[in-house]
Amino acid sequence: MEKNKILLIGVDAADWKVLNPMIDEGLLPTFQKIIEEGTSGNIMTLDPPLSPMLWTSIVTGKRADKHGILGFLELDPISASVRNISSGSRKTRTIWNILHYAGYRQVVVNWWPSHPVEPIRGYMVSHHFNTPIMRPGELWKVPAHSVHPREMVAELSSLRIHPAELSDQHILPFIPMAHKVNQEETNSIDALAKIIAENSTTHAIATYLMDKEPWDFVAIYFDLIDHLGHGFMRFHPPRHPSVRIEDFEIYKDVIRSGYRFFDMMLEQYLKRVDNNTLLVIVSDHGMYSDILRPMRLPKFKAAPALEHRALGMVCFYGKGIKRDERVYGATLLDIAPTLLAYAGIPIGKDMDGRVLMEIFEHPPRVDYIDSWDQVAGDFAELPEHFRWTDENPIEAIEQLVALGYIEKPDEDAIKARKKIWIENQFNLARVYISKFEYDKAKQILEELVKDELATIDIHLTLFQVYLSIDPNKANDILERISKIVDDETASMLNFSLMKAKVYMAQNNLIAAETILLDMIKNKNFTPSTLRESGKLLFQTGRFNDSIKAYQYALELNSDDPLALFGLAQNYFMLGWYEEASDYCLDALGILYYFPQAHYLLGRSLMELGRYEEAAKALEKFVSMLPTHVSARSFLIKIYRDLLHKPEMCEMHQKYVEGFFKGRIVVVSGLPRSGTSLMMQMLEAGGMRILTDNLRKPDEHNPRGYYEYEPVKNLHKDNSFMKEAIGKAVKIIAQLLPYIPLDYKYKIIFMHRDMNEILQSQQKMLGRDPSIFPSGLANIFQKQLQVVDNWIKEHPEFEILHVNHQDVIKQPFAVASKINEFLDYSLDTYNMIKVVDPNLYRNKAI
């Protein structure tokens, strides 16, 4: 049976923002052909955006915590020296390992990292082979284990191109005014020559091997665009004010020339594919080329990654691919599963990506196995002595020293070793953050910041983690950062924005708003500042103002999925469900792993009566966040009541019933502290309420009291509490100590200004509200103290304190916190719809 052939070309940092204008000018004819006759789109990178990690994710379909490549350098487990990252540290199988098992004949050239090479059926040339390491008068040696089979070393060595072999004719297309470069002040021409030579070597070897024998799969990696970008993007038009005019004129053509050079190479690959071949071109990230490109970098080890844009590019061309179509929501993790599906090979369930079914004219059948790592057989893997997957090489090395097998490294070596270990663990923490596994990240980062070698970016990342899980701790870390950074780094960090984020996380929106508005007034803002302003305005219910802030942010960065989602949230609250769904789709087209956007898309489609589509969106959300109960509740409603497919809701029904089993939610506080409003919010959010509705709504509580008559006698008889299991019940603070202790409770305790409480009570009793009953206030304060002491005696009960005024002034922030407290069992959008500031009538003066 003839195999479906695949040609995978990786081009580091290629970006549509440079590609598209050049295609429109007719300067990239090969790219234009591929786009017009294939399917293309954005592809979302992963965090951290470091090339060895990303290119390994592309060929494994897994994040770095699974594949094991954690940075640019690693520790040699025997010598204790620092070495370049190796394929031996990879903990999982790549697509070429799987295709080897399936009988494919392959060519893999310069993939990063691929050294030492693996004995695949065909040819592999590692990413070390084309690096011109030599001094004048020395031979250009071939690194050991850089070519498979070894018999090809001499044959391929003759194809290598050294920078010294290049002439003016190779440099001038990139720098036409090269004669004006002062080579005593800058090595820019030498750097450019090295980039051209290395990528030309890769191209020469790849085309030679493709022509040598028939092949089924080819993978080639080019770092051309990335290296040119880091070296010359600051000179790319339009001229940045910080760039001298004379330097701009010399180097302004480098980036565009690099893209044209690659397009010429790409033409040669099109000549080498037939009608039975799928061509895939992918970049691991983009690179800022506009107003957002950083002109100065902080002193971080991986600071150049700040020049990377989250969106890369991807093109699919060839057999079975839709013509002139777009693909949306692709990530680097999707490439390997998609290629395996195209080849008719099962997908590992442990892969993190999905099959991009939408790119195919006739989607292939997709089969699955648990994991390719568990399959026995010939996968062309490295011998054991090349492989190192120990979890802690530092401990292993120290153990060898203690046993006397190796000499103790000198202090510089120890320090270098430690720095690499710290950097790689830091990268692992960032991977966990990208998966929302904050506790794992925090555990790593808390240990790293204790070390004297911990860099400032580690502290900053720990700050970001605590913003999500403990804002008060985030504030402490921010103060620590302000004390340890040098003046230059401090000038590049936006402490004002970070402080505003702390205030927002603490729900101190007034303080956050003061900072953000001041930044905007003084033109000290970025898209992030505007996005945070939009978020704040949304949380305080100023939806139209929030829309304006998000739109302004999108003017600066049109590909910001968070700003697009912010617009969707606002339009949903305004009842513009079509617009809300459109903006959700726009956000998901950029960032597919965006659970909240899938959820809001499902909710918007429900409101539009598009129930089948709504169910698909909510199912996708549940697949990402399976413990989110509110989405399952909506799916139950859709399947049972709207689509009449009861069999589809059985799994969700069992989960929801099991989730609420044995739990009681109690809403408590002093009378008139906002407990009825909280019960309304919980009911609107989807929670079942224990109430008999005997007390009817009136002018004081026009939406009802949500009371249950037996609660009044709780101090005498609490046996009725079993009826509250899986529901919410309102119990005034004075009766709280009488609840039976044999249930699992989550308590929402309402707080309100005592003047407002008593004023409201006076009105209800028909008394003069201007007369303040100080004696009653003292009694209530003592009762609250009794309740507070009781709560402290029962740490097994989870309690959330909510301020009534916060509910009115920042409903979304409070609703979100309540939803988090109740394990995401509520719909926050419905919760805030019941908050009516007009009913806040008794205000403290």
Please give a structural write-up.
The chain is built from 34 helices and 20 strands. The strands form five sheets. Strands 1, 2, 5, 6, 7, 8, 9, 12, 13 and 14 form a ten-stranded mixed beta sheet that branches. It has a four-stranded parallel beta sheet with strand order 18-17-19-20. It has 845 residues and is α/β, with parallel strands linked by helices. The longest helix has 25 residues, at 188-212. The radius of gyration is 31 Å and the shape is elongated.
Q: Supply the number of helical segments.
A: 34
Fraction of residues in H or I helices? 40-55%
The radius of gyration computed from the alpha-carbon positions, rounded to a whole number of angstroms, is: 31 Å
Q: What would you call the shape?
A: elongated
Strand content: 5-15%
- Spans where pLDDT lies below 50 across 5 or more residues: 389-393
Could you say which structural class the secondary elements and strand pairing correspond to? alpha/beta
Q: Count the strands?
A: 20
- What about the largest sheet? 10 strands, mixed
What is the first-to-last residue Cα distance?
84 Å
Mean pLDDT, to the nearest integer, reads: 88
